[in-house]
Amino acid sequence: MQRRTPRSSAAEPPIASGVLALGDGSVVTPHGKDSRLLARQVSETEVVVALAGGGARFEVPDRAARRFRADLGALAIETHGAAFDVRIARRQVEVVAERGELSARWGRERRVIAAGETRTFPIALPVAPREEVHPAPGEPAPAPEPPSTWRDDAGRGDYQAAWAGLAGVRGPLDSMADLLLAGDVARMSGHPDAAIASLSRAVQLHAEDPRAPLAAFTRGRVHLEDLGAPRDAALAFARAHELAPDGPLAEDALAREVEAWSRCGEAETARARAVTYTQRYPHGRRAQMVRRFGGLERR
């Protein structure tokens, strides 16, 4: 198998639409428009990304203190540094390890995928048959199992079923966990406007929550990549940077803000924010992209 080596920062390509670049240096590149990506968690110790449909290529830098996890429906792939490719078909998921070691968790099973190996997994866990319980004479019948909730469906990666269940929820959601999950469900099931509503409410109600910057950053990505609204995206990325100027997403939020201002024709604002980026991150991972969108490249 041909090995790919990571590009150096000097030859860094611009961020394409749909590419997920995270604060730990990880880059996830989707395979086509059918691949939907979202960041569920970005912290100093853990990064969690969910993928639905199509597939993606993952470049994860080596960091022993930070775990990276990719959620692919019922399958979870974990690593502390690797390059791997995922292809999601109708009935199976194919995982190709190009560099580093992966730990695959599927239900109760765990498998190690070494560099150069390919493994396939069923797309969903098998449904165990329910054991029939016959109460003794005179004993009450056991209570039926509660129906699956939209949260259960989302946890299994069945976002279409989760979206259908979410539509039946009465009243607005208020907790940060529910709003973030609802945003995930809406985006992964193809309803970006509903995702914006949940993410906006999450930031509005829980600005002090450590997950608020991620909610604002994801809102920016939805505006820019799914709805084609770069001005709204720029404001969302700016809010993400404002909420945690020294957090793990700060550099990427500022870089994407520059891109969004440029894409909506606000050249002067893009340039000003690009100058701020180069001053704050003189050797930043996104320096080349920022200079290009900010009009700072030497002619």
Would you give the CATH topology of the largest domain?
Answer: Jelly Rolls
Distance between the first and last residues' Cα: 41 Å
Helix content percent band: 25-40%
In terms of quaternary structure, the protein is: single chain
The fraction of residues assigned to DSSP E strands is 15-25%
Counted by DSSP, the helix tally is 9
Low-confidence blocks of residues: 1-16
The CATH C-level class name of the largest domain? Mainly Beta
Tell me the major beta sheet: 6 strands, antiparallel
The domain tally reads 2
Principal-axes geometry comes out as globular
The total of beta strands comes to 12
Evaluate the radius of gyration: 21 Å
List the helices and strands in order.
EEEEEEEEEEEEHHHHHHHHH
Strand order of the largest sheet: 1-2-5-8-9-12
* CATH architecture heading of the largest domain: Sandwich
Nearest-integer average pLDDT: 86
Helix-strand layout with pairing:
Blueprint: E1 20-21, E2 27-30, E3 36-42, E4 46-52, E5 55-60, E6 67-72, E7 75-79, E8 82-88, E9 92-100, E10 102-106, E11 109-113, E12 118-122, H1 150-155, H2 159-166, H3 176-188, H4 192-205, H5 212-226, H6 230-243, H7 250-263, H8 267-280, H9 287-294
Parallel strand pairs: 4-6
Antiparallel strand pairs: 1-2, 2-5, 3-4, 5-8, 6-7, 7-10, 8-9, 9-12, 10-11
Helix pairs in contact: 2-3, 3-4, 4-5, 5-6, 6-7, 7-8, 7-9, 8-9
Describe this structure in words.
This protein is α+β, with helices and mostly antiparallel strands and 299 residues long. It has 2 domains: 1-7 and 14-125, Jelly Rolls; 207-299, Alpha Horseshoe (Serine Threonine Protein Phosphatase 5, Tetratricopeptide repeat). The chain contains 9 helices and 12 strands. Strands 1-2-5-8-9-12 form a 6-stranded antiparallel β-sheet, with no helix packed on it. It has a 6-stranded mixed β-sheet with strand order 3-4-6-7-10-11, with helices on one face. A hairpin with a 2-residue loop joins strand 10 and strand 11. The model is unreliable at 1-16 (pLDDT under 50).
